[in-house]
Amino acid sequence: MNHDDPTRYGADTLAVRAGQQRTAEREHSEALFLTSSYVFDSAASAAAHFANEIEGNVYSRYTNPTVRNFEQRLAALEGAERAVATSSGMAAILSVVMGHLRQGDQIICSRDVFGSTHVLLEKTIAKFGVEIVYVPLTDLDAWRSAVQDNTRLLYCETPSNPLAEVADIAALAEIAGAAGALLVVDNCFCTPALQQPLRWGADLVIHSATKFIDGQGRCLGGAVVGSRELLEPVVGFVRSAGPSMSPFNAWVFLKGLETLRLRMRAHCDSAQALALWLRQQPAVEKVYYAGLPDHLGHALAAKQQSGFGAVVGFVVRGGREAAWRLLDSCQLLSLTANLGDTKTTIVHPATTTHGRLSDDSRAAAGIVDGLVRISVGLEELADIQADLAAALAQLQP
Q1: Which residues get modified to N6-(pyridoxal phosphate)lysine (predicted)?
Q2: Single pTM value for the model
Q3: Where are the beta strands (DSSP E) in 111-230?
């Protein structure tokens, strides 16, 4: 495969072959390089490598052939120049902020981001003198009004977690560009199999490889994708601070990328059917899924995405008590906060993924007590529905 010109191949081919560089052993599967360091030919060569005068492996904290293979394949799928792998999705966010921002800068963030993103910004990043402003994801006027002279970064997830609100990426890119700021989009829920934010004007893309890219709940990892220029500060932070992806995890994620597009199609099909089914259940008040025609973000999602994803949110009648009873009654579905797994997972966001937010922040993000989030796996749809039907029956008076 011509690795210098990935555009000549289709996405399914890139998912299987992009980035691989065979060793002298001529291995067919990607090699796993479990080494912390590398041997140099001479003292002069070592000095040149450390000074970035020669491109090559230096230390696995920031240069490793297996990790590089994963980075190149993910970048190819996103249509990007480069990717930088990190130890987790949260480490990817941290690396972008620490690489690009300084004291006195401002971040404008959609208010319905993942709970840990809120905590990272509020409890850690704000301590360094960075101002954080939250706005509704879909309110473009609010984004424009929040822009100040010190605005350096606009950050959002789309679709959002767990209400599936959809950002107009092109419009946000225009706002960011006019402000001289970067637009950073968390693409965790869609992955490059369903959405490529760079095509719509985003500057950087965040991934939690832990989720759908792995696909089987095995390893932690993250990545930042974008241009070589914008990733240089991120690389510098990862090299110095060390929130690096391990070679073994990168090797697992490489295998996940090979089947990502196939899995996402199956996830989407089952999630669409489950969302329609949930709407017919008496104990369910509301269903959040962008694939539903009357969802406020449906048309925009259909434009930006090639599928609506695997995550379905729904509100049960009876608040937290009813939601907990539902979760405790499920026999097949896994009660866990992870998502993007072949196994269907179910969780109560208000007391788990978003539990560290203040009551006001949860209310603003629409995380009500009766809200339940499902990440639809690859089991038989009829079995998922049967498990939920039995659990929902427990909520009837």
Answers
A1: 211
A2: 0.92
A3: 131-135, 151-157, 182-186, 204-208, 222-226
